[in-house]
Amino acid sequence: MRTTFELTTTELGAQNAVAGGGRYDGLIKLLGGPPDPGIGFAVGVERVVQLLPDEGPEAWEGRRVGVFLIPLGEEPLKRLLPIANQLRSKGLVVEVGHGERKLGRELERANKLPQAKRLGVLQAVILGPDELARGEAIVRELKSGTQRTVPLSGLVDELLALGGRA
Known about the structure:
Layout: E1 4-8, E2 17-23, H1 27-30, E3 39-43, H2 45-51, E4 64-71, H3 74-89, E5 92-96, H4 103-111, H5 114-119, E6 122-127, H6 129-134, E7 136-141, E8 147-151, H7 155-162
Parallel strand pairs: 4-5, 4-6
Antiparallel strand pairs: 1-2, 2-3, 6-7, 7-8
């Protein structure tokens, strides 16, 4: 080993290493391979998470309406991911379901999100294979339970127009 590095912090006490690595000349040869150089590094994900600030309800202040996208299957998920990126780039708080759960479980999860509790408003966008085939999505207001059908082509504009209103 020729060059090594280690990233440490004073925030974690004795377990202060967050990442480390180096150049490992001769390691492959030592293990029976050719004399090629090698490099490697590792990051302690759990330690990085410990260093992240603990965001409380005030973190949602000033953020626009929360949107929970519920894909009911793989194809709807593929269609909703670019929509999620568009909404986030415009400042909306967006969560995306996994596409593997039943609708009832996803709606239950949506109601438990921090932004739903803090803002008191959250839009759920439901997109299943049938809606996808028709080129539309269902937008449900979780607070009131009312829902409407919106063309996929106008979904981003519709959600942006809500701008934090229920």
